[in-house]
């Protein structure tokens, strides 16, 4: 029998394939929950944006670092790699910051009378 060290693992057994399908369904369910929570978070940020008057308040670098530290700690508490949580949240924050800056500019344009 010839050994191939890169292919030590056999193809999943029928039971293994069923488990994979079940776990994928769990991931799909979790994704729906995550998206619902992200949508809720986005709604809160949109509301908050209406009270911000300048780019500095939108960007809030100290608040960003506070959130990142909190998220890293929560990730560690839940057994999740903190680097994954941080990268995810930095992307989320960057995108929500862009959204807020667009809204801030829309409000400014409306106040100047040249808005949509």
List the helices and strands and how they pair.
Elements: H1 14-49, H2 55-59, H3 61-77, H4 82-112
Overall pLDDT level: 91
How many beta-strand elements?
0
Rg, nearest Å: 22 Å
Shape: elongated
Work out the helicity level: over 70%
Order of helices and strands: HHHH
Low-pLDDT stretches are 1-7
Largest sheet: none
Tally of alpha and pi helices: 4
Strand pairing plus helix content: what structural class? mainly alpha
Residues in β-strands, percent: under 5%
- End-to-end C-alpha gap: 74 Å
Fold and architecture overview:
This protein is mainly alpha-helical and 116 residues long. Helix content is 77%, strand content 0%. The protein is built from 4 helices and no strands. Helix 1 packs parallel to helix 4 and helix 3 (61-77) packs antiparallel against helix 4 (82-112). Residues 1-7 have low confidence and may be disordered.
What are the defining features of this structure?
single chain, 116 residues, 0% strand, mainly alpha
Brief sketch in words of this structure:
This protein has 116 residues and is mainly α. It has helices spanning 14-49, 55-59, 61-77, 82-112. The termini are far apart.
